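Memo subject: From amino acid sequence to discrete backbone structure tokens
Action wanted: Derive the backbone structure tokens from the amino acid sequence.
How to read it: Take the token row as a discrete description of the fold.
Attached in line: The record itself begins immediately under this heading.
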Amino acid sequence: MELTYLKFQKITGKPVNALAYPYGNFNDKVVEETKKYYLFGLTTTPELFSEKGIKDELYLLPRIYIKYSTTLDDFAKIVEGGFYTR
């Protein structure tokens, strides 16, 4: 994971703060490795984030899917946190 982190940082020229788990696959060991290099980890759990106070919460962040069919109005509602359907 360190090599991936360094490669992304070299390509972007900026610090890399988050890792999106490939295909959403992760386990406790992956989370522990992620914590060594990143501030956040993103899963493929489709829901809005709400703080729950669970262990490693910042490494288990859900994602919201934005589809090709998502309208600009729907996108604005999602960003504002007032609208989300799966």
Notes: The beta strands are 18-20, 40-46, 61-63. The first strand starts at residue 18 and ends at 20. Residues 23 and 44 are 7 Å apart (CA to CA).
